[in-house]
């Protein structure tokens, strides 16, 4: 079954959880019952999460719950979940500095974000360098 947006029924869409979330075109105009953007509230239960991506979610939403401890990405897989979160909610990229302000452990990641995304995008060829960077700052 191809992913399909619940709202516009487009099958060529990108969503984190196609059964419950709208596509990126529909999402900005879709709010949940509490008045929150469903991209934000739906992501946390979507399954593509880890402690570091939940840390971003918690700090940037200021919503309660679902994160037991603040953490940084420790390897390329962790970083990938963080990068995909920011692809899902691209306006948060400009707010990453809030991560550095709130958690000192995030400073090196925030200030090197673009380079880390570039390494991640290289796939296997950038994975070792990305893992090494994350090991050094952990």
Tell me the span between the first and last alpha carbons: 40 Å
Rounded mean pLDDT is: 82
Shape type? globular
How many structural units, i.e. domains?
2
Estimate the strand proportion: under 5%
Helix percent reads: 40-55%
Radius of gyration: 15 Å
Task: Kindly describe this structure.
The chain has 138 residues and is mostly helical. The chain folds into two domains: 1-47, no CATH class; 49-137, no CATH class. The chain contains seven helices and no strands. The protein has helices at 38-43, 51-61, 76-88, 97-102, 107-111, 113-121, 124-137. α2 packs parallel to α3 (76-88) and α6 runs antiparallel to α7 (124-137). The radius of gyration is 15 Å and the shape is globular. 28% of the residues are buried. The model has no long low-confidence stretch (mean pLDDT 82).
List keywords for this structure.
138 residues; 2 domains; 7 helices; mainly alpha
Question: How is the topology of this model organized?
Answer:
Layout: H1 38-43, H2 51-61, H3 76-88, H4 97-102, H5 107-111, H6 113-121, H7 124-137
Write a compact overview of the structure shown.
With 138 residues, this protein is mainly alpha-helical. The protein is 46% helix and 0% strand.
């Amino acid at each position: 079954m191809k992913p399909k947006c619940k709202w516009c029924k487009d099958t060529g869409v990108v969503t984190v959880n196609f059964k419950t979330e709208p596509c990126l075109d529909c999402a900005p105009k879709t709010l949940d019952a509490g008045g929150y953007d469903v991209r934000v509230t739906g992501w946390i239960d979507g399954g593509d999460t880890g402690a570091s991506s939940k840390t971003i979610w918690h700090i940037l939403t200021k919503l309660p719950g679902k994160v037991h401890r603040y953490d940084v990405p420790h390897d390329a897989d962790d970083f990938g979940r963080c990068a995909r979160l920011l692809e899902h909610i691209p306006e948060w990229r400009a707010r990453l500095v809030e991560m550095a302000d709130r958690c000192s452990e995030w400073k090196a990641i925030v200030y090197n974000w673009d380079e880390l995304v570039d390494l991640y995008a290289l796939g296997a060829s950038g994975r070792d360098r990305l893992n090494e960077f994350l090991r050094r700052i952990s």
